[in-house]
Request: fold
Amino acid sequence: MNAKLQSQLQAQIDKLDSVSTAPAILLPLLDMLRLPSDRISLEKVVELISYDGSLAAQCLRLANSPLFGRRQTETVRSAVMTLGLERVRSLLFGLCMNGVIPQDKWVIAPDAFWRHSLGCALITQRMAQKIEYPEPEKAYLAGLLHDLGFLVNSVLRTEDFRECLRRAAEQHLPLHVIEEQVLGFSHCETGQMLCGHWGLSKELMDAARCHHDVSLLPTAGPLACLVHLSDLLCRVRYLGYGYDEIMGVDLGGDAAWQTLVRAYPALGNMDLVRFTLDIDGAMEQIIATVDSVFGARKITAPATS
Amino acid sequence: MPFEIAKAKPAVTPDSNPGDPAYLKIRDLIYRISGIYHAETKLYLLISRCARRMAALRVTSPSEYLEHLTTRGNRDAELRLLLNEITIGETYMFRHPAQLDALRNVILPQILQVKGLISLKRLRFWCAGCSTGEEPHTLAMFLLEEKDKLLAGWTFDILATDLNDNSLEAARAGIYGEYALRSTSDALRRKYFKDVGNNKLQANELLKTPICFDRINLRDDSKMLFQKGIDIIFCCNVLIYFDLASKRRVVQHFYSNLLPGGYLFLGSAESLFQVDDSFRLVHFPGTTAYWKPTAAQAVGGTK
Reply:
């Protein structure tokens, strides 16, 4: 991507908040996402949700869904307690981003996008725990945010990006490869820009930028490597971008794996088949959660009042 | 369906408590001994399998059953019986479509490309532990369907072996009921089977021709050494019955039986972790396989 295109995109991203209705809770929510889940205050979460009638309604709907076996949740507070803080903050983020993207601009189906993002967040976190990476919460966040560039591309280049998705699905190829061909840049770059625009840490920006090619970093950070591997694992367990990719992944032979295993030898002691079976179970939960939020209505824009 | 999401959970005996830590110990034991792993969400399957053995033994608590598996004199026999329960009903045709997709989309094109440079356009498959033949017949149907497409200009044969003579006899006869054919389309039934009455279908000559059945004991080193030039081996839920040392030896045989660039498929919950590190584990959509890369492939990473 040349400098001119980059500054043009950056200028468009900087205006993104003003062109669409950025939910008021986005920035406090991002602050909250930076904390380990045991340090998030229940009161703070309830307060954030209560700002927005639509978010509150969504939380109640989910808490009352058969998935949680509850029928009588009537307050935001009890809904949050039913759902658990961990799940609530991921959901909030998803619902909140749906408000940033106008309804007609979604290219990747929102449910597919959130399955992939939440799946990747969870796998990144679990893998981080397995290798004893000191900040698994940050790993979760890196996984959750790694594909934000798709949303940027959906808004800024809607029709071209739609064409990317069409071609990628038709040829069963990775989306970033087609983005490079059609747009001249990929969601990796725009994702990094959006993270920068939101003032997120350099590590998170790097993870967004390099999650398809860790060799872009002079010394690939562990977060970028973890997200790269989790993204691949998601895509081979049917949590990709909503179409079938043709792929065979030798994770152990992957550059990110080899970089990580040097710094975190515990990775070498991980039974990947077993890990994959474990995450399949967690995926079922994610699919059920996302479906119960997006199942009835594909896109739910938070109320602006 | 992405992965097997449980539909109806099998009933477990009233006094079996799924949260009982003894079940986790049994799960870990099975994993250690056989390499079969039950994730948290699949634990109910293991519990229902244990329930059948516990009923047969008139054992009521999982911790008592754990004793049968670990400290009682007949523990090896009991472990085998439990493994039988775990793998029972595993086989029907087209049981693992993800494996066939991986073959069609990635593995075969890759192998054809490597072997296409050599003049002999022939592929060899081996179903090691073919039981009553569902797997080799599925593979034969799949390959015959690709004969004029992906495999145009190529020939192939399937070696299907088992230790059990009764199983082999059934496999050779190739007579199947509705259960085995539940995922086989009408078109394939018409093309590759003939009606033999009693709601049974029998594999026709077209389907039988590419398959060669033989009795092979995977522990028989001298016989194992003779299997050469194989491109793809299927060995699903067989090694689970072997102790670590024999498992290692069989897997090493497989490694040398395979041509460079070849693949080994195991059962979907089977792992070679700490059994063997000569193979490379490759993830495909919905399935995994073990790969013996060529010297040139070994240098590259993710394909």
Summary: Chain A touches chain B through 32 residues (CB under 8 Å). The mean pLDDT of chain A is 84.
